[in-house]
């Protein structure tokens, strides 16, 4: 009897510990999300939100080309950025883990992610200084006479991709590096003993073993990239809007909350699809 | 252990490959330098042209001047935004760590029903874009007619940082700590005492890591702060409104200052951690 009541008391205390976090998440995350999901099925008339259930917002999304185009723009840019970032970051992480002497590795890694700590808004802005018509790259190329007209590399998709890749290369280098150094050298020795050359060892042993780390980083990149408003807004110009920009337009200029909610749900679905695609590699575990 | 010997053995196994090996090595150093140049290019340009003596932060560099730094420090709104940012970052990170630690302790040490579901719920905000979290909160706050302020920004920042703090602290709650906690309990400490005086100090490195990571996230967060604030704004939002004036060396100056501050914090943290890890 006493053990049962003790257990009850313990359990009640445990609930007391976990409750604040659960309540916070429920009140400020789950409820707002459900409210938004409901709102996506309402509509706007003038400045008022009319609570009549319908699918008009979603229908409009699939019929209005400007809206649909923002999703494909977002997906194209995000996939380009994710692939480019992984391709750039993997060799960098590998070189830091394999070629840089052990005692300099920490330093090399800190250096590689140092610009991470500038303000996010400022980082996008600083790419404008580099890419704009009067910017560093154009001035340098004009100066050495390689081009006669300034290149159009700011205010378009290229600039957005460059700005994103810059950010995510740093992030991915960190995740891939931590994966590479956890790899026991025995695997590679075993592969070498069995007659594999450097490339075969990499392709059949190292790469598959670091795939979970790559996928985690790639998923993180996808989520952060597709939901970001700042980089495309600062660097992307006005021709190709992405989904977050269209969402911000709805609540800013048009005050159309239901439409913004519907677009957010669509953004959410894109992330969920990406999650399901890489789910088998993603794990959060207790040590 | 036997690593140097092992590499030597492979060197002997492929003597003809040494030229190729040197080429590969040269290529990797070149690659390293190229990517580092890419990573540092915008920051270097940003800092260099913050000292520009003139109105445009692009080439040619006209000469060295501190005028833009002076105008940053003279800007009341910018300084107020900086103070707001610090306040929101520290407060929201503290709340996130506290709630995250309590939840991690309960879920790691007690058997609770549906604990996998609870963990999932606590982690869930991590997989949702900040924009969506901000929009949902904004919609609810509007519906309840709650005025926007730094408080609402703080609430939003706890939503995004709580999963992070929970995950970091939960991951560090290894089973090897259980015996120490049991010993404390045997010696008569109450559950709350064990948690506060035994578990928390043991986990302090990861709690501090979670705290500082949260601070940097909150400090730099834009979209939630932008949508959920009105009159008092945080630094990223204030910088955003400065951007409307186009390229301006003053933006470079404030950007460089933020960068400098982060680097100083990073160096201090690194030295502090390094100092501790050397002492066994």
List the SSEs and their pairings.
The complex is a heterodimer of chains A (287) and B (280).
Chain A: H1 2-39, E1 43-45, E2 48-50, H2 56-63, H3 65-98, H4 102-112, H5 120-131, H6 136-143, H7 157-182, H8 185-193, H9 198-226, H10 230-235, H11 243-252, H12 257-278
Antiparallel strand pairs in A: 1-2
Helix pairs in contact in A: 3-7, 3-9, 3-11, 5-7, 7-9, 8-9, 9-12, 11-12
Chain B: H1 3-13, H2 18-50, H3 67-74, H4 76-109, H5 115-123, H6 130-143, H7 150-172, H8 178-186, H9 191-202, H10 204-220, H11 223-227, H12 235-243, H13 249-278
Top keywords for this entry?
heterodimer, A: 287 residues, MetI-like fold, 74% helix, B: mainly alpha
The major sheet of chain A is characterized as: 2 strands, antiparallel
Percent in strands of chain B:
under 5%
Based on CA inertia axes, which overall geometry of chain B fits? globular
Name of the CATH architecture of the domain at 83-237 in chain B: Orthogonal Bundle
Strand order of the largest sheet of chain A: 1-2
What features would you describe in this structure?
The complex is a heterodimer of chains A (287) and B (280). By secondary structure, chain A is mainly α. Chain A is built from 12 helices and 2 strands, in the order H-E-E-H-H-H-H-H-H-H-H-H-H-H. In chain A, helix 8 runs antiparallel to helix 9 (198-226). Chain B is mostly helical. Chain B has a domain at 83-237: Orthogonal Bundle (MetI-like fold). In chain B, 76% of the residues lie in helices and 0% in strands. Chain B has 13 helices and no strands. Chain B has helices spanning 3-13, 18-50, 67-74, 76-109, 115-123, 130-143, 150-172, 178-186, 191-202, 204-220, 223-227, 235-243, 249-278. Chain B is globular. At the A-B interface, helix 1, helix 3, helix 4, helix 5 and helix 6 of A face helix 1, helix 2, helix 4, helix 5 and helix 6 of B.
Describe what is shown at a glance.
Chain A is mainly alpha-helical and 287 residues long.
